[in-house]
Amino acid sequence: MQLTRKRTALVAGGLVVIVALGVAVRVEQSRRGRNDHPNPATPEAALAELRAGNARYMSSHRTLSTDTKHDADDRTELAKGQHPFAAVLCCSDSRVCPEFIFDQRPGSIFDIRNAGNVVDDDVMASLEYAVEHLHVRVILVLGHKGCGAIEAVHDAADKPLHDHLRALQEHMACIRPQLAASRDRHSADDLNQLSKDNAKGQAMTLLAESEPVRTAVSSGEVRLVYAIYDMVTGEAEFFDVEK
Fold first, then answer.
1. Pairing between β-strand 223-229 and β-strand 236-240 as defined by DSSP bridges
2. What is the mean pLDDT of the chain?
3. Domain identity same for 11 and 46
4. Whole domain around residue 92: which residue ranges?
5. Helix and strand totals (H; E) in the chain
6. CATH number of the domain enclosing 144
7. Among 73-77, 126-130, 198-202, which is the least confidently predicted range?
Protein backbone atom coordinates (compact mmCIF):
# COMPACT_ATOMS: atom_id res chain seq x y z
CA MET A 1 0.00 0.00 0.00
CA GLN A 2 2.79 2.40 0.95
CA LEU A 3 4.75 1.51 -2.21
CA THR A 4 1.68 2.21 -4.33
CA ARG A 5 1.32 5.64 -2.75
CA LYS A 6 4.97 6.44 -3.47
CA ARG A 7 4.57 5.36 -7.09
CA THR A 8 1.44 7.51 -7.42
CA ALA A 9 3.26 10.51 -5.96
CA LEU A 10 6.20 9.99 -8.31
CA VAL A 11 3.91 9.73 -11.33
CA ALA A 12 2.00 12.87 -10.27
CA GLY A 13 5.25 14.75 -9.73
CA GLY A 14 6.52 13.65 -13.11
CA LEU A 15 3.32 14.86 -14.77
CA VAL A 16 3.69 18.26 -13.11
CA VAL A 17 7.24 18.53 -14.43
CA ILE A 18 6.15 17.48 -17.92
CA VAL A 19 3.29 19.99 -17.96
CA ALA A 20 5.59 22.76 -16.69
CA LEU A 21 8.17 21.93 -19.35
CA GLY A 22 5.46 21.91 -22.00
CA VAL A 23 4.23 25.35 -20.94
CA ALA A 24 7.80 26.70 -20.93
CA VAL A 25 8.42 25.31 -24.40
CA ARG A 26 5.20 26.82 -25.75
CA VAL A 27 6.01 30.20 -24.21
CA GLU A 28 9.52 30.12 -25.69
CA GLN A 29 8.18 29.06 -29.08
CA SER A 30 5.62 31.86 -28.91
CA ARG A 31 8.30 34.40 -28.11
CA ARG A 32 10.51 33.15 -30.91
CA GLY A 33 7.59 33.41 -33.30
CA ARG A 34 6.78 37.03 -32.48
CA ASN A 35 8.21 40.13 -34.08
CA ASP A 36 10.37 41.67 -31.35
CA HIS A 37 10.77 45.38 -30.79
CA PRO A 38 12.86 46.90 -33.58
CA ASN A 39 16.17 48.23 -32.35
CA PRO A 40 17.80 50.06 -35.27
CA ALA A 41 21.47 50.80 -34.61
CA THR A 42 21.81 53.72 -37.04
CA PRO A 43 19.71 56.72 -38.08
CA GLU A 44 19.39 55.25 -41.56
CA ALA A 45 18.09 51.95 -40.19
CA ALA A 46 15.67 53.78 -37.91
CA LEU A 47 14.26 55.79 -40.80
CA ALA A 48 14.00 52.60 -42.87
CA GLU A 49 11.97 50.99 -40.08
CA LEU A 50 9.54 53.91 -40.04
CA ARG A 51 9.17 53.66 -43.82
CA ALA A 52 8.64 49.90 -43.66
CA GLY A 53 6.04 50.26 -40.92
CA ASN A 54 4.20 52.90 -42.92
CA ALA A 55 4.19 50.60 -45.94
CA ARG A 56 2.59 47.87 -43.81
CA TYR A 57 -0.02 50.35 -42.59
CA MET A 58 -0.82 51.56 -46.11
CA SER A 59 -1.35 47.99 -47.31
CA SER A 60 -3.48 47.08 -44.25
CA HIS A 61 -0.89 44.56 -43.07
CA ARG A 62 0.12 45.93 -39.69
CA THR A 63 1.91 43.37 -37.52
CA LEU A 64 3.71 45.04 -34.62
CA SER A 65 0.84 47.30 -33.55
CA THR A 66 -1.74 44.49 -33.73
CA ASP A 67 0.11 41.92 -31.60
CA THR A 68 -1.91 41.82 -28.37
CA LYS A 69 -0.91 38.33 -27.21
CA HIS A 70 2.22 39.68 -25.52
CA ASP A 71 0.77 42.79 -23.89
CA ALA A 72 1.44 41.55 -20.36
CA ASP A 73 5.04 40.61 -21.19
CA ASP A 74 5.56 43.95 -22.92
CA ARG A 75 4.20 45.90 -19.95
CA THR A 76 6.51 44.06 -17.59
CA GLU A 77 9.52 44.66 -19.80
CA LEU A 78 8.74 48.31 -20.53
CA ALA A 79 8.25 49.05 -16.84
CA LYS A 80 11.99 48.44 -16.47
CA GLY A 81 12.86 51.26 -18.90
CA GLN A 82 12.21 52.70 -22.34
CA HIS A 83 14.42 52.55 -25.42
CA PRO A 84 12.56 54.23 -28.30
CA PHE A 85 14.41 54.48 -31.59
CA ALA A 86 12.46 57.49 -32.90
CA ALA A 87 10.99 60.72 -31.55
CA VAL A 88 7.93 62.00 -33.39
CA LEU A 89 6.45 65.46 -33.07
CA CYS A 90 2.97 65.32 -34.54
CA CYS A 91 -0.41 67.02 -34.38
CA SER A 92 -2.87 66.21 -31.59
CA ASP A 93 -5.48 65.38 -34.25
CA SER A 94 -7.25 62.20 -33.09
CA ARG A 95 -6.86 60.70 -36.57
CA VAL A 96 -3.07 60.88 -36.45
CA CYS A 97 -1.66 57.99 -34.43
CA PRO A 98 2.10 57.41 -34.93
CA GLU A 99 2.09 53.85 -33.54
CA PHE A 100 -0.45 52.85 -36.20
CA ILE A 101 0.93 55.00 -39.02
CA PHE A 102 4.40 53.46 -38.55
CA ASP A 103 3.17 50.11 -37.19
CA GLN A 104 5.16 50.10 -33.97
CA ARG A 105 4.64 48.69 -30.50
CA PRO A 106 4.54 50.85 -27.35
CA GLY A 107 8.09 51.68 -26.36
CA SER A 108 9.37 52.24 -29.90
CA ILE A 109 8.27 55.84 -30.50
CA PHE A 110 8.72 58.82 -28.16
CA ASP A 111 5.57 60.85 -28.92
CA ILE A 112 5.25 64.62 -28.56
CA ARG A 113 1.90 66.02 -29.68
CA ASN A 114 0.20 69.40 -29.89
CA ALA A 115 -2.14 71.22 -32.25
CA GLY A 116 -0.25 72.04 -35.43
CA ASN A 117 2.89 70.06 -34.44
CA VAL A 118 4.65 73.27 -33.44
CA VAL A 119 7.98 73.65 -31.66
CA ASP A 120 7.66 75.50 -28.37
CA ASP A 121 9.85 75.36 -25.27
CA ASP A 122 8.18 72.22 -23.91
CA VAL A 123 8.55 70.44 -27.22
CA MET A 124 12.18 71.46 -27.51
CA ALA A 125 12.90 70.23 -23.99
CA SER A 126 11.19 66.93 -24.73
CA LEU A 127 13.19 66.38 -27.91
CA GLU A 128 16.44 67.31 -26.20
CA TYR A 129 15.61 64.74 -23.53
CA ALA A 130 14.93 62.17 -26.26
CA VAL A 131 18.32 62.87 -27.83
CA GLU A 132 20.47 63.10 -24.70
CA HIS A 133 18.85 60.49 -22.46
CA LEU A 134 16.91 58.11 -24.69
CA HIS A 135 19.40 58.19 -27.58
CA VAL A 136 16.80 58.14 -30.33
CA ARG A 137 18.16 57.76 -33.84
CA VAL A 138 15.52 59.76 -35.71
CA ILE A 139 13.54 62.91 -35.00
CA LEU A 140 10.48 63.25 -37.21
CA VAL A 141 8.24 66.30 -37.47
CA LEU A 142 5.00 64.91 -38.84
CA GLY A 143 2.50 67.28 -40.42
CA HIS A 144 -0.73 66.07 -41.97
CA LYS A 145 -3.16 66.99 -44.67
CA GLY A 146 -6.47 68.42 -43.50
CA CYS A 147 -4.92 70.03 -40.43
CA GLY A 148 -7.44 72.16 -38.52
CA ALA A 149 -4.74 74.20 -36.79
CA ILE A 150 -3.26 75.18 -40.14
CA GLU A 151 -6.70 76.13 -41.45
CA ALA A 152 -7.46 78.25 -38.38
CA VAL A 153 -4.19 80.19 -38.69
CA HIS A 154 -4.69 80.61 -42.43
CA ASP A 155 -8.25 81.89 -42.07
CA ALA A 156 -7.32 84.34 -39.31
CA ALA A 157 -4.96 86.12 -41.70
CA ASP A 158 -3.65 89.23 -39.88
CA LYS A 159 -6.21 89.02 -37.09
CA PRO A 160 -5.11 87.40 -33.82
CA LEU A 161 -6.93 84.24 -32.81
CA HIS A 162 -8.75 84.36 -29.48
CA ASP A 163 -7.39 83.24 -26.14
CA HIS A 164 -4.56 80.73 -26.18
CA LEU A 165 -5.15 79.87 -29.84
CA ARG A 166 -3.07 82.96 -30.49
CA ALA A 167 -0.02 80.85 -29.55
CA LEU A 168 -0.51 78.80 -32.72
CA GLN A 169 0.07 81.90 -34.81
CA GLU A 170 3.14 82.80 -32.80
CA HIS A 171 4.65 79.35 -33.19
CA MET A 172 3.86 79.25 -36.91
CA ALA A 173 5.93 82.36 -37.59
CA CYS A 174 8.11 80.17 -39.84
CA ILE A 175 5.37 80.12 -42.50
CA ARG A 176 4.21 83.75 -42.38
CA PRO A 177 5.38 84.44 -45.97
CA GLN A 178 3.46 81.40 -47.24
CA LEU A 179 0.38 82.41 -45.26
CA ALA A 180 0.46 85.88 -46.75
CA ALA A 181 0.90 84.53 -50.26
CA SER A 182 -2.04 82.13 -49.91
CA ARG A 183 -4.39 84.56 -48.17
CA ASP A 184 -6.89 84.64 -51.04
CA ARG A 185 -6.69 80.90 -51.70
CA HIS A 186 -8.47 78.25 -49.67
CA SER A 187 -8.24 75.05 -51.66
CA ALA A 188 -7.31 71.75 -50.03
CA ASP A 189 -4.08 71.75 -52.02
CA ASP A 190 -3.13 75.19 -50.71
CA LEU A 191 -3.80 74.21 -47.10
CA ASN A 192 -1.97 70.91 -47.48
CA GLN A 193 1.05 72.73 -48.88
CA LEU A 194 0.97 74.99 -45.82
CA SER A 195 0.97 71.88 -43.60
CA LYS A 196 4.04 70.61 -45.40
CA ASP A 197 5.74 74.03 -45.19
CA ASN A 198 4.93 74.18 -41.48
CA ALA A 199 6.40 70.73 -40.79
CA LYS A 200 9.59 71.78 -42.54
CA GLY A 201 9.64 75.14 -40.79
CA GLN A 202 9.19 73.56 -37.36
CA ALA A 203 12.06 71.15 -38.06
CA MET A 204 14.24 74.06 -39.13
CA THR A 205 13.28 75.97 -35.97
CA LEU A 206 14.29 72.99 -33.86
CA LEU A 207 17.61 72.73 -35.66
CA ALA A 208 18.30 76.45 -35.28
CA GLU A 209 17.30 76.85 -31.63
CA SER A 210 18.32 73.60 -29.96
CA GLU A 211 22.04 73.12 -29.45
CA PRO A 212 21.76 69.45 -28.34
CA VAL A 213 19.67 68.55 -31.37
CA ARG A 214 21.91 70.50 -33.74
CA THR A 215 25.02 68.81 -32.33
CA ALA A 216 23.49 65.34 -32.61
CA VAL A 217 22.38 65.96 -36.20
CA SER A 218 25.75 67.45 -37.21
CA SER A 219 27.63 64.48 -35.76
CA GLY A 220 25.42 61.99 -37.59
CA GLU A 221 24.05 60.47 -34.40
CA VAL A 222 20.52 61.61 -35.21
CA ARG A 223 18.62 62.09 -38.46
CA LEU A 224 16.17 64.99 -38.52
CA VAL A 225 13.39 64.65 -41.09
CA TYR A 226 9.88 65.90 -41.68
CA ALA A 227 6.89 64.28 -43.34
CA ILE A 228 3.37 65.00 -44.50
CA TYR A 229 0.72 62.40 -43.69
CA ASP A 230 -2.28 61.69 -45.91
CA MET A 231 -5.21 60.50 -43.81
CA VAL A 232 -6.93 58.93 -46.82
CA THR A 233 -4.10 56.88 -48.28
CA GLY A 234 -2.17 56.42 -45.03
CA GLU A 235 1.08 57.49 -46.68
CA ALA A 236 3.69 59.47 -44.81
CA GLU A 237 5.90 61.21 -47.38
CA PHE A 238 9.36 61.90 -45.95
CA PHE A 239 11.70 64.81 -46.64
CA ASP A 240 15.19 65.66 -45.44
CA VAL A 241 15.80 68.86 -43.52
CA GLU A 242 18.38 71.20 -44.99
CA LYS A 243 21.28 71.62 -42.58
1. antiparallel
2. 88
3. no
4. 39-240
5. 10, 5
6. 3.40.1050.10
7. 73-77
Same domain, 127 and 223: yes
Contact criterion met (CB below 8 Å) for 104 and 136: no
Residues 143 and 213 in one domain: yes
> pLDDT-based confidence at 185, cuts 50/70/90?
confident
- 214-225 residue pLDDT tens: 999 999 999 999
Rounded CA-CA distance 101/36 in Å is: 18
Residues 147-173 have a mean pLDDT of 94
28-35 long-range contacts (CB < 8 A, ≥24 apart) are 30/69, 30/70, 31/70, 31/73, 34/67, 34/69, 34/70, 35/63, 35/64, 35/67
Is 123 in the same domain as 90? yes
Neighbours of 165 (CB within 10 A): 14
62 and 125 fall within a common domain: yes
Crossing angle of helices 211-219 and 188-209, in 10° steps, is 90
- Write the burial class of residue 19 (CB in 10 Å: 0-12 exposed, 13-18 middle, 19+ buried): exposed
Could you tell me the pTM of the whole model? Answer: 0.84
> Does 48 lie in the same domain as 15?
no
Residues 213 and 106 in one domain: yes
- Residue 18's pLDDT band (boundaries 50, 70, 90)? very low
**7 with 93, same domain?**
no
Segment 110-126 mean pLDDT: 98
For the chain, the domain total comes to: 2
